[in-house]
């Protein structure tokens, strides 16, 4: 990719991972009254150097801020952080455990390797990328990192059934330049995700013309 019903008790997700070392992680049960939330989290992660992806062995569900359920069905494959390859250098290890839960659900809906899955592209691309951001925050990823990862999938991720807003023809060089400007803009002041989306939407027409517009004097301060 160029380039994220209530359960009565604990369930176990066993994944097979292509990079990294073996290990396990354990988490406490989710608060069933809280949203957004994961209905359960991966309890155990197993790694295998012979596979490119982590493979979900049980259904896994995230509930977003509006109460919608996002199902990553058994068999979902994920490459770790769900970030387009063009931006991976900005984030270091794409298999960081803090990103896994959000990546699993996000990849179920937009990773091409999951196109035969029950959830693939069942929601709009904007909703799907917003869900990824909420899942990252729920995973205790700090807000700036979560917004940068969200910006990465927004700029370099798929935009299905929306030919008007496709960025597939934008070069990697322009996307990287735009991402760096986004990073600078976000670092200047705390922004809501709604403000970030509006900022990226305003600049989209310039990206489609093959250029990353300069930050205004106000945006640079």
Structure description:
The chain is mostly helical and 221 residues long. It has one domain (23-215). Helix content is 36%, strand content 8%. It has six helices and seven strands. A three-stranded antiparallel β-sheet has the order 2-5-6, with helices on one face. A two-stranded antiparallel sheet has the order 1-3. The protein has a two-stranded antiparallel sheet with strand order 4-7. Strand 5 and strand 6 form a beta hairpin. Helix 1 (97-110) runs antiparallel to helix 2 (125-138) and helix 3 (143-156) packs antiparallel against helix 4 (172-188). The two termini are 34 Å apart.
Task: Tally the structural domains.
Answer: 1
Q: What's the helical proportion of residues?
A: 25-40%
The count of DSSP E runs of length 2 or more, i.e. the number of strands, is 7
Radius of gyration: 17 Å
Structural class comes to mainly alpha
How far apart, in Å, are the first and last alpha carbons? 34 Å
The unreliable regions are 1-28
Mean of all residue-level pLDDT scores = 82
Spell the H/E element sequence: EEEEEEEHHHHHH
Shape, per Cα inertia axes: globular
The percentage of residues in β strands lies in: 5-15%
Largest sheet: 3 strands, antiparallel
Strand order of the largest sheet: 2-5-6
Annotation field: number of helices: 6
């Amino acid at each position: 990719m160029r380039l994220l019903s209530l359960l009565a008790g604990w369930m176990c997700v066993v994944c097979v991972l292509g990079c990294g070392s073996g290990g396990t992680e354990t988490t406490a049960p989710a608060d069933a009254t809280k949203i957004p939330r994961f209905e359960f989290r991966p309890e155990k992660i197993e790694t295998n150097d012979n596979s490119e992806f982590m493979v979900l062995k049980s259904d896994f569900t995230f509930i977003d801020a509006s109460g919608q359920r996002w199902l990553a069905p058994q068999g979902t494959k994920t490459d770790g952080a769900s970030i387009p390859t063009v931006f991976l250098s900005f984030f270091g290890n794409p298999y960081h455990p803090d990103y896994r839960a959000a990546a699993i659900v996000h990849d179920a809906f937009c990773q091409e390797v999951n196109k035969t899955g029950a959830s693939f592209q069942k929601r709009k691309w904007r909703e799907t990328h917003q869900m990824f951001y909420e899942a990252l925050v729920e995973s205790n990823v700090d807000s700036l990192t979560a917004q940068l990862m969200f910006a990465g999938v927004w700029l370099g991720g798929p935009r299905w059934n929306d030919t008007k807003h496709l960025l597939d023809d934008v070069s990697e060089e322009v996307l990287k330049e735009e991402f760096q400007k986004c990073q600078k803009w976000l670092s200047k002041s705390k922004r809501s995700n709604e403000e970030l989306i509006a900022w990226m939407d305003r600049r989209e027409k310039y990206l489609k013309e093959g250029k990353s517009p300069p930050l205004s004097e106000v945006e640079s301060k």
